[in-house]
Sequence to fold (420 residues):
Amino acid sequence: MPTTSGSPLRLAPFRRFLLAQIVSATGTAMAPLALAYAVIGQGGGAGSLGAVLVTNSAPTIVFVLLGGVLADRMSRSRLLFAGNALAAAAQGVVAVLVGAGYATTATVAVCGLVSGTATALRVPAAQGAVPQLVPPGQRQRANALLRLPTNAVRFVGPVAAGLLVAAGGPAWALGWDAVSFALAAVLLRGLRLPAPLAAGPPLAALRAGWRAFRDRTWLWTYTLSGTVVVAAWLAGFQLLGPLVAAARYEGARDWGLVQAALAGGLLAGTLVCLRWRPRRPLVVAIVTSAGLAVPLAALAAGLPLGCVLGATVLAGVALDIGVVTWTTAFQSHVPEDEIGRMSAFNNIGERLAIPFGYLLVALAAHLWSEGVVLCVCAGLILLATLLNLCVRDAYRITRPASSRVPGSRAATTVEAGSGG
Fold:
């Protein structure tokens, strides 16, 4: 693998990986709207849709550890192929059931369970595939390029899904989602990435992975901070945001503009990361998490819509810079044969509190005004960010030299200072 700096687009395997991401992103952007209208179309309400969403997301938390262990033992390209093929099958069955008029909440939920399991297999493998495809000096640009199509289709995906659902029903959009997963599976199968060295029996490997995660102070403290930040952001923005828009602004129309502003900010953040390579990417990732508090505070204060849109754009820019710089730091300072398990522990940590965050915010909104609860959410984000900035190990995670060997234990020990 070349180690000089430059564009990862010159590497044929990375282009194949990127194309797979672009294809699957088009289907993923359409799926939520199509799934919602599929449930509504068969007579389901909020409870039915909630059950489908839970069955889709719960397996990711439950099985992501298994995905992490497998990603450190199997060929990651084969694991990505299997995950995408499984998702294609699940979404294909949903599309057929919806199109034939046989879909029920139970059948859609079962397919969601399979789809969520497929996600648990894909996420750690995708995290570990990038270091195998791209040399250290090109990883931030590679991660930004991978984010670019996902953020771009946030603009057109829901609109295209709406038109497709209106014209022919949700089965067509769900069918394209299945096809996109199948095409991505074929592209990823062609990567043929070698398997990492097996680290003993699976349970022993899991225990060893937990010790390695625990010994990296910068990693577990960032994950712990993310547990608070992600839960507070989603509960404040996704749960209370639409309610505030309905009460103080023009409802769905203005909330759609806010969502578009977030997508525009994410896209702008990706473009920034294509040019800017900070020396301390983890510190940048921590600092940018504070940007998520800005739109929550703007909504809490009841600022004019223009101010809310500007605050949301800023949050989107900060969020995407944080995602890219964190991913780059993670991939550069975790040995290649541990990335799957470390990614799994990080994913569990950041997702675990989300259901509790929704529940607590919903209960708190009955006791206090929405503005007060939004201020608490913003305050929790700022507090978690400030505490994470006090972790000394975070400042030792520096941008790797382009000649550094990916996954080098010595490099990780010297720069992270917290157990390689």
Summary: Residues 402-420 have pLDDT under 50 and may be disordered.
